[in-house]
Design brief:
Elements: H1 2-75, H2 77-88, H3 91-105, H4 113-123, E1 127-134, E2 139-143, E3 149-153, H5 156-164, E4 172-180, E5 187-196, H6 198-206, E6 211-216, E7 221-224, H7 231-240, H8 243-247, E8 249-256, E9 259-266, H9 267-270, H10 275-318, H11 334-357, H12 359-373, H13 378-393, H14 397-415, E10 419-421, H15 422-439, E11 444-449, E12 458-460, H16 465-475, E13 483-491, E14 497-503, H17 510-522, H18 531-544, E15 549-554, E16 560-566, H19 570-579
Parallel strand pairs: 11-13
Antiparallel strand pairs: 1-2, 1-5, 2-3, 4-5, 6-7, 6-9, 8-9, 10-12, 13-14, 14-16, 15-16
């Protein structure tokens, strides 16, 4: 049933998160699509404007070239006079004029109108054709890029086009520049300077999103990228001011002299987003949706797993297992708070049950200990004393001293109170070490240093004996003669005392010391490895607090330093001062 509840929460949250995810991703896709559509519109308008500017720039460039050629003709009297005579004289008279001019001026090269137009072709690559038209003779002469000329007389079609102002054809558009006689200011004819129209094709292909139309005021089309609209329709709409409505497009217009440029792009096409971009948006949305779903599933599975762990723990508690603990402090959220409260509840409940239901057993054990403590220990002391006196009578004084030290140690362990003076603890430790001095004669030396003012400090009994015993079991070097143990008592700031047990024995590796200190700090040292030190550490922490206990250090010259930290209560410290 508990698992069903967690599954229900899982499906409910999954539906909510999925709905939020779909709405968020849809909103983002729509936002990015609209932003992209806006950017395409801006780009289309920019391209339309740039297309119009490029076409207008080309018209301006060709107009300037035509003006330069016209001015250059007037700046050269020989070419100008040659053109005037060419348009006014008959061919034979014109040839005689050229010959007379050549002879009179004694020049190496005659500069006529053919040479002038050839130089113009060479100077301006965009020139498509140049023609010279005589009004008087109704005669047109075309000049080619290879320096040749072709004369045609009485060209009615051309004359009509000239009268209509239609100066364009399929491949070019032209500028008309009249030629006057400087002396009489009479118009003799004109120059038709034509330029290539295919340049507009290149401009349109470069900015291909919009359409381009170039036309003259006379209504002739120079170039159009689309034949959808006729020139008359365009001009009528332009005059009426309804060009944008007729085209249904964004429009850019320019005019340079007699020629107009029109760039336009339909409004729907201007903001249209390519299908490939739309597909990318859809694919990106699907990918983000899939990743979001995976994240949501993973997160909810983790959440459901943690909830199942809490429910399983509650089930075990209901079955009577109070040792169950739920992992906490991993995510720092409310479930970790619930887990910590659950663990504390189990610990306190377990402690309460032990105190409540094991009180009777504790009471029985206490009664048994009381009965055992009532047994008179004088039998043990009297026996040791009888053995000691027998040894002395037999002349074995060393055995007598050993038995005396052992009797003092037993008497302190059985009869003394749990908290004794530091002087007593050091005295019992000395007696214990005397037993090993007899055992390891000339191999072992013990030193105890304690300031006199610290001797009256109270401490729990038998904290040094297990440390000394541990040294004789694991640290003493049996083959050496310079073994020693030094006990030093120091006081730290804040009222805490340090008992330093220092030896020059086998010692421990740095890794082992770090591991042991960690176990001592956490009070998790395995009893079978060092039951004495673990017991002393646990007793010091229980009596004086978690900041006290045992810490190990490596001795600089070899061996080990065992530091016992304890902090007596203020009442005990005051009592010690009064006793002093």
């Amino acid at each position: 049933m508990e698992m069903k509840g967690s599954r229900q929460l899982y499906h409910k949250l999954f539906f909510i998160y999925t709905t939020i995810l779909v709405c968020a991703i849809s909103a983002l896709v729509i936002f990015f699509f609209n932003s992209t559509r806006k950017r395409f519109l801006e780009q289309s308008l920019t391209y339309t404007e740039m297309m119009s500017e490029s076409a207008a720039s080309y018209l301006e460039e060709t107009s300037d070239i035509a003006e330069y050629i016209h001015e250059d003709l007037y700046n050269s009297s020989m070419e100008l006079n040659d053109a005037l005579h060419y348009m006014a004289d008959e061919p034979a008279v014109y040839q005689q004029y050229r010959l007379d001019t050549y002879i009179e001026n004694k020049i190496r090269e005659y500069k006529g109108i053919e040479k002038f137009f050839l130089n113009a072709y060479q100077a301006y690559s965009s020139l498509n054709h140049i023609a010279l038209y005589s009004y008087e003779k109704n005669e047109i002469t075309e000049y080619t890029k290879d320096g040749k000329s072709y004369r045609r007389t009485k060209d009615e079609e051309f004359q009509k086009r000239l009268e209509d102002g239609n100066l364009t054809d399929e491949e070019s558009f032209s500028y008309l520049k009249e030629i006057r006689d400087p002396s009489t200011m009479q118009v003799r004819g004109c120059m038709l300077i034509g330029f290539q129209s295919k340049k507009f094709e290149s401009i349109w292909q470069y900015y291909s999103r919009a359409e381009l139309m170039v036309y003259s005021e006379a209504g002739s089309v120079v170039y159009t990228s689309s034949g959808e609209y006729g020139i008359s329709e365009i001009m009528e709409a332009d005059e009426a001011g309804t060009l944008k409505d007729v085209l249904g497009a964004y429009v850019e217009q320019t005019q340079d002299g007699q020629y107009h440029t029109l760039s336009y792009i339909e409004k729907d096409r201007a903001a249209a987003v390519p299908f490939s971009v739309v597909l990318v948006f859809l694919m990106a949305g699907i990918v983000v949706m899939a990743l979001g779903e995976m994240f949501v599933r993973y997160h909810l599975k983790q959440l459901a797993g943690r909830l199942d762990g809490i429910l399983d723990g509650m089930t075990k508690v209901m079955e009577g297992d109070l040792t169950v603990r739920i992992p906490a402090d991993k995510n720092g959220d409310e479930l970790d708070v619930i887990a910590r409260y659950f663990n504390d509840m189990c610990a306190r409940l377990d402690e309460h049950i032990k105190k409540r239901y094991l009180a009777e057993i504790e009471q029985k054990n206490a009664e048994m200990d009381a009965l055992q403590s009532q047994i008179n220990p004088h039998f043990l002391y009297n026996t040791l004393e009888a053995v000691r006196m027998k040894a002395i009578c037999n002349g074995d004084r060393e055995v007598g001293k050993m038995l005396y030290s052992l009797a003092v140690t037993f008497r302190a362990q059985i009869k003394e109170a749990d908290i004794i003076l530091l002087a007593q603890e050091l005295h019992y430790c000395k007696k214990y070490m005397e037993l090993f001095e007899f055992r390891y004669q000339n191999q072992f030396k013990a030193v105890v240093e304690c300031p006199e003012e610290y001797l009256q400090v109270r401490i729990i009994k038998f904290v040094l004996q297990p440390v000394i015993e541990n040294y004789f079991i694991h640290g003493i070097r049996m083959k050496e003669q310079d073994n020693f143990v030094k006990i030093t008592v120091e006081k730290e700031a804040g009222g805490r005392y340090r008992i330093i047990v220092e030896d020059n024995g086998k010692g421990m590796t740095e890794e082992a010391i770090v591991q042991k200190n960690q176990e001592l700090q956490q009070d998790s040292m395995e009893k079978h490895s060092s039951i004495g030190i673990a017991n002393v550490n646990r007793r010091l922490k229980a009596v004086y607090g978690k900041e006290c206990g045992i810490r190990l250090e490596a001795r600089a010259l070899g061996g080990l330093r065992v530091i016992l930290l304890f902090k007596p209560d203020e009442e005990e410290a005051d009592t010690s001062s009064d006793q002093k």
